[in-house]
């Protein structure tokens, strides 16, 4: 491997990947979007802002499995009223 190849492979490992899902942007539009995103990330890094993780999807959360099972039947509503205090 030559020096040029190692520099390119090292750069490609650290460069963020961008995937275009819809549309067909030009190279100029992609470069502009990349410049804006890079500038925002660099500014956040300088200020020490931590990366914000997306919120947990409550539909896929396992916490709902910890809930007590429902017991429908005669007197169930009365029992729930007594639990409230």
Describe this structure in words.
The protein has 85 residues and is mainly alpha-helical. It has a domain at 1-51. Helix content is 48%, strand content 0%. The chain has helices at residues 3-14, 27-47, 76-83. This is Acyl-CoA carboxylase subunit epsilon. GO terms for molecular function: acetyl-CoA carboxylase activity; propionyl-CoA carboxylase activity. It comes from Microcella pacifica. InterPro entries: ACC_epsilon.
Summarize the structure in short.
This protein has 85 residues and is an all-alpha fold. The protein is 48% helix and 0% strand.
Keywords:
single chain; 85 residues; mainly alpha; 3 helices; 48% helix; 0% strand; elongated
Mean pLDDT comes to 75
| Percentage of residues in DSSP E strands | under 5%
Instruction: Output the helix-strand order.
Output: HHH
Oligomer kind? single chain
Q: What is the approximate shape?
A: elongated
Distance between the termini: 75 Å
Secondary structure tally, helices: 3
Structural class: mainly alpha
The count of DSSP E runs of length 2 or more, i.e. the number of strands, is: 0
Main beta sheet strand tally, sense and closure: none
| Sequence stretches where pLDDT stays below 50 over 5 or more residues | none
Helix content: 40-55%
CA radius of gyration is: 26 Å
